[in-house]
Amino acid sequence: MAESPITKAAPPEDTSGSDRLDRQTILLGLVIVSGTVMAILDTTIVNVALETLGRDFSTGLSTIQWVITGYMLAMGTVIPLTGWAVDRFGGRRVWMTSIVLFVLGSVLSGAAWNIGSLIVFRVVQGLGGGMLMPTGMAILTMAAGPRRMGRIMSIVGVPMLLGPVLGPVLGGWLVEDVDWRWIFLVNLPVGAMALALAWWKVPRHSGGHAAPGLDWRGLVLLPPGFVLLIYGLSTASSSGGFGEPSTIAWLAGGAVLVALFALHSLRLRERSLIDVRLFADRTFATAAVAVFFVGIALMGSMLLIPLYYQIGRGEGAFAAGLLLAPQGLGAATAMPIAGMVTDKLGAGRIVPAGIVLLVVGTVPFALVGADTSYWLLGTALYVRGLGLGCTMMPTMSAALTTLSRAAVSRASSTLNIIVQLGGSVGTALLAVILARQIGDRIPRAAAGGDGAAAGMSEIPERVREQIAPKLADAFGHTFWVALILTAVLILPALLLPRHAAHEKDAVPDAPPPA
User: Fold this and answer.
1) Which of 95, 109, 271, 377 has the most CB within a 10 Å radius?
2) Rounded to whole angstroms, what are the CA distances from 147 to 22, 127, 424, 449?
3) Is the per-residue pLDDT at 433 higher than 80?
């Protein structure tokens, strides 16, 4: 595979033996964070607005969830193009173009006139946001070296910390006191700042001469396969559920396309969108499975918890955002510690503990009642946040430390695809389960089709008190599914390396600094 310009643009490695990040790498990390924070922040901002969007556009949960799912699928679709685009046009151009496209999608989403246009514009936004994280990750991992991978991943993880804390609160305030359109338009000033910082700090390199050909056949097979799989999940809210012939057809079609891509990738090797040979590395394959379920646990909870506070308890968007903040605070507490532990002892020492915390923090929601204490739920969310902080970035770090430097760019792109796919599956699956559970327990809620859960919070408070136990049961059942999907994480986590990375692991074929 041709050498990536990202590698050529990376700062020279620190040969002093120090595990500390140098000032240049930290500054570059902050510049990258200024761009990636938009994509992460926007996901969490939108979560608390789903009830309002469903009401304004007169649509149910199984449709409105595509505002999130479409965005995440678009991100996953464009991620495989990142390596080719960077080789062809240069990392700086790809980074800045992605910011511009993301901001354009934000403006269009803010101007949406119906649910269909909003979903389409969210896809445009996702196409821009999808290349931000993998491009930034590749730049920073090349700059830091494997011994400092945990620390640099902690910097990359900053948007994942800020998003869950600030996103729901900011989104709730904008929805209640300004207008829901501003949850998208707020990206204008953030994008302008990120673009200015990129112009100033991201290294210039031309690209072009080293670019391999684009894998058009893979592009035709893999992204549509993802779309068919997730669409099949979303159609399961119909009366036939997962046994509906149309649902089975969508799922089977998606599985066939993904299988055909796997065969195609084995033939094309590193020139394919995703090199499936990466999964021959046991550590990478194990971490990839874990990251998929982390995506389900993270994005599934970001869908369910705000809806529980708004639909089940009658809270407004701003209150729901505040009540969700402890999860982000927990992640902010744990992630720096998890980065250091990963560097010194290996991900296998910290990730299993994180999964236990995730499960413990989910149990109160699975047992939720009509009047469960907010203090108990807030504490549970903080514990969940600790678990997420000990799980997500250490797992991704472990996946990259055993690979050669030439494979890091492709591997980081693959991991980001898996995260987005996991999040898309979690969002679609749990939305379907919640809609069906509410429809089964409260038949009139299903009268509007696909579980009109998104409009449930508009019912009179007197009526809400009567149906509150049924709503709590519906959410509790759905949280049990989320808990089981989270607990499955323990299996791959036990196989992660229990030793620190070594500098020699990832750089034998690294080219000299440009």
Assistant:
1) 109
2) 13, 32, 32, 53
3) yes
Convert 336-361 into a string of H (helix), E (strand) and C (coil).
HHHHHHHHHHCHHHHHHHHHHHHHHH
Give pTM, 2 decimals.
0.76
The vertex-295 CA angle with 241 and 314, nearest 5°, equals 65
pLDDT tens-place string over residues 435-462: 888 877 776 655 444 444 444 445 566 6
The token pair that represents 490 in the structure block: 């323990």
pLDDT at position 400 over 60: yes
Angle (CA) 260-83-161 rounded to 5° is 100
> 350, 319, 11: which is closest to 169 by C-alpha?
319
Q: Which residues contact 95 (CB under 8 A, 6 or more apart)?
A: 35, 131, 132, 135, 136, 198, 202
| First CA to last CA distance, the chain | 18
Residue written as token pair 């709730």 = 172
* 3-class SS of residue 79: coil
Average confidence (pLDDT) over 194-211: 68
The length of the chain in residues reads 514
**DSSP annotation string for 408-470:** HHHHHHHHHHHHHHHHHHHHHHHHHHHHHHHHHHSGGGGTTSS-GGGGGGGS-HHHHHHHHHH
Specify the pLDDT at position 109. 92
DSSP state of 48: T
Three-state DSSP at 104 gives helix
What is the rounded CA–CA span in Å between residue 433 and residue 150? 36
State pLDDT tens for residues 327-371.
888 888 888 788 777 777 777 788 888 889 999 999 999 998 888
Whole-number Å distance between alpha carbons of 318 and 325: 11
What pLDDT does 325 receive?
85
User: With 60 as the cut, is the pLDDT of residue 463 above it?
Assistant: yes
428-to-63, 294, 299, 511 alpha-carbon distances in Å: 10, 15, 10, 43
Would you call 149 exposed, middle or buried from its count of C-beta atoms within 10 A (0-12, 13-18, 19+)? Answer: buried
Q: Which segments of 158-230 are extended strands (E)? A: none
* Per-residue DSSP letter, 503: G
Q: pLDDT value at position 501?
A: 56
**Tens digits of residue pLDDT in 230-284:** 777 777 655 556 677 777 888 889 889 989 988 888 887 767 777 788 787 777 7
Rama region for 507: left / alpha / beta (φ>0; ψ in -120 to 50; rest): alpha
CB atoms within 10 A of CB 264: 18
Dist CA 341 CA 113 (whole Å): 49
pLDDT for position 292: 85
What are φ and ψ of residue 89, in 5° steps?
-115, -10
Taking the C-alpha atoms of residue 159 and residue 511, their distance in angstroms, rounded to an integer, is 30
Given a contact cutoff of 8 angstroms between Cβ atoms, the answer to whether 57 and 179 are in contact is no
**Residue 463 burial (CB count, 10 A):** 9
